[in-house]
Structure formats: structure tokens, C-alpha cells
UniProtKB/TrEMBL annotation:
Lineage: Bacteria, Thermotogati, Thermotogota, Thermotogae, Thermotogales
Protein's name in the database: DUF2905 domain-containing protein
TM helices/strands, residue ranges: 24-47
Domain of life according to the entry: Bacteria
Record's keyword terms, sorted: Membrane, Transmembrane, Transmembrane helix
């Protein structure tokens, strides 16, 4: 949650849902999370191959 609050000033990727009201901001970074998941999966698979 801390990281997301720091990223609120950045531009979001297309597909991320950002709703801004007067005193409320709702952020649902679905595209960012999918990309992050794919990158972490690839990196962890490469790392795991070195330890077999």
C-alpha cells in the first residue's frame, strides 16, 4: 500500500483504473500487476535454474 501511495503521482498504464473524486482516490492497477507478475515469474524461473 505504501508503494502504491507513492506511485499515485505517476502516470498509469492503459488498463489501470484510477478514479479521482473530491476527497477520494481509488487505484486498481490491473495492467501494472499483470506486467509485474510476468516479469517476476521470468526472473524467478531464471534464478531457479541456476540452483538446480
Amino acid at each position: 500500500m505504501f508503494l502504491i501511495s507513492k506511485m499515485s503521482d505517476l502516470n498509469w498504464l492503459p488498463g489501470d483504473i484510477v478514479i479521482r473524486k473530491k476527497n477520494f482516490v481509488f487505484i486498481f492497477p490491473i495492467t501494472t500487476m499483470i506486467i509485474l507478475s510476468v516479469v517476476l515469474t521470468v526472473v524467478l524461473n531464471i534464478i531457479s535454474r541456476f540452483f538446480k
